[in-house]
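note to self — DONT lose this again. spent like an hour looking for the file last time. sequence + predicted structure for the chain T wanted, 314 res
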Amino acid sequence: MIDVVIGAQQSFFFTTERDEDKRALELRLPAGEDTRQLEQARRTSKDVLAVAESLNDETRTALAAAILARVTTQLGNLHEALPLRERAEAIYRRLDDQSALPYALANHADLLIRLGRLDDAGKPIAELEEGIAKKKEAYVGRARRVAFLRGFLAAAALRCSDANAALAGVTISPEDSDAAGVVTPGLRAFCDARQGRPVAPYVTASERAALMDVAERDYWFALANVVRGDGRAVLLAAADGLDRVKSLKNDELRWRLTALGAIGAKGANDETRAVAMLEEAKAAIMRVRAALADATKPYESRPDFVYLTKRAGL
């Protein structure tokens, strides 16, 4: 659920007058999504950030910080990503970079929602909406993502009327690979279930979509079926999500999906599997709590997580 203001190959080019031959330094980040590749990407992006800092180049420092935040978020390390997002946003504000700032605001809001800081997330979303109202070009270009973020925030807060109203502004198609297109059907399914409306069937996401986004979509579809009381459908969606992230060391996704799997297995009368998945969920959430430290309370207070943990018995 992340915007990136870079080319698809994720390359960085730094040329400095301090280099006697004015040669360019090129560092590439791998495009893969398993833990090994992402850990390599994290090391590389840290090196890129250090180079940008050594050159005292604020624009490239902001970009490198945003890329490192992206990688750490994919690994589930939300607490590490937040100061990087804040740093990038602060630089763009200082430089009055009105092209890059709306991307930074959207990414910051997304991360705050994930961390359960819903009130704080409303502030960058409101700033984006203000820019859209003023018809600032870069902000208008973020309108679809802003509608998604507003819907994501409301769904996480269990305010489904508000969520559906916001998500009405998100047009989607089967070919969508961005977070708005991938995750929105799951959010809609959950809120339809909460409001007693028929839930649309699960539709396979584009093969080009990020695994993290597809797993997030699976989370919301599984949660919708918890509301509906369909244990087998819960288990199917949760198992799909777990299969997608099996190569990722992402406990933030893992605890949610295994907790849902435990609910689904119990509803499907598979007690052995339910117990095993609940134990896995408990272990994963303990690791998340240890990593979040002081940020644990707002995270665990996110209303959809409260609903999930109560239903799972965590």
